[in-house]
Amino acid sequence: MSASAMSPAVRPTTPNAATPKKVKHHYGTHAFLIAICAIWVLPVVWAVYTALRPFGDTANNPRGYFSVGGAYNLDNFFKAWQDAELLQHFVNTLIVAIPAIILILFFASMIAFAVSRYSFRFNIALLMLFTAGNLLPQQVVITPLFRMYLALPMVKPLSDNGIWYDQFFGLIMIHLAFQLGFCTFVLSNYFKQVPREINEAAVVDGASVWRTYWSVLLPLARPALAALATLEFTWIYNDFFWGILLMRTGDKLPVTSALNNLSGQFFTDYNLLAAGSIIVALPTLIVYLALQKQFVAGLTLGSTKG
Fold first, then answer.
1. Hey, which residues does 263 pair with through a beta bridge?
2. How far is 258 from 90, CA to CA, in rounded Å?
């Protein structure tokens, strides 16, 4: 029987490739994301608006916050910069943040290298110990930590009063203790993705353990280190709690803790405080924009294979 004599009912058919696919519109998802963005952006917009308004336009008349008219200027920003001496406190923050980030990444990378590239008896237990440290609320250790800082001795070059309390060294150590576990966990997962053949090749070439870590694996971890450095700078820079608790001298306070100086005992100029908060928030935004590519590259490491 020829093909032309076949019945239409049994004639083979092919799907119509030109049939358009139905596009699903995620209106609910988009509305939810827009609402979340608005919730996050609204406080920032409100702070900028408050910082641009003179105190007299908003304090005497509560409706002044919602009035469009009135004066708008940068006087609160200049006054906050001078009254809070923010330049000195920016320097204090860098004195704490830069050494802390270097020490955190250095020790975390060494620990991650050991637990991810070598097998020993307490390998997993050691990694769990560092990871579990992130689950401990910092407020739980306020009293014992404060008493410990008052009792621990320190040599004069690192302490002008002979103890850890009210010293930059003390703040660096507390950030090192609380941030080390998170960085160890992240870097250990990254090192596990590096083929072990790289280690074996380094050993065959006569490289020691230190040389393998420093010259082979650590350069491969630059994207992860850059991402962690961005996160750690943001967290340490934004710290308010430890600066208030462990520092007594006003000239030594980090910049976020120094904002507390803009609050009076009986009166607080919230317009001035909003301006100071915006000034303090700018460096973290600049750091993120400067390291944006490295930050995104570090976060997406291991997300795809091949």
1. 268
2. 9
pLDDT digits (tens, 9 = 90+) for 50-63: 899 888 777 766 55
Model pLDDT, residue 304: 46
d(CA 167, CA 158) in angstroms, rounded, equals: 8
Total-model pTM: 0.82
CATH 1.10.3720.10, the chain: domain bounds: 84-299
CA end-to-end span of the chain, whole Å? 51
Q: Is the dihedral of CA 62, 66, 70, 76 positive or negative?
A: positive
22 Rama sector, left if φ>0, alpha if ψ -120 to 50, beta otherwise: beta
Q: Torsion angle, CA of 162/166/172/173, rounded to 10 degrees?
A: 60
Cα separation values, 15 from 4, 7, 10, 268, Å: 21, 19, 15, 73
CA distance 109 to 112: 5
Give the per-residue pLDDT at 279: 94
Helices (H) and strands (E) in the chain, counts: 15, 0
CA angle, 181 then 126 then 191, to 5°: 70
Using 50, 70 and 90 to split pLDDT, how confident is the model at 306? very low
Residues 199, 201, 207, 213, Cα dihedral to 10°: -30
Q: What is the pLDDT of residues 168-210, one digit of tens each?
A: 999 999 999 999 989 998 899 889 888 888 888 888 888 899 9
Neighbours of 111 (CB within 10 A): 20
Residue type, 200: E
84-299: which CATH topology? MetI-like fold (1.10.3720)
When mean pLDDT is compared across 63-67, 106-110, 295-299, the lowest value belongs to 63-67
Measured CA to CA in angstroms, residue 305 lies from 193, 301, 302 at distances of: 10, 10, 7
Return the structure tokens found at 172.
């660096």
- In sequence order, which residues have a C-beta less than 8 Å from that of residue 5 and are 6 or more positions away? none
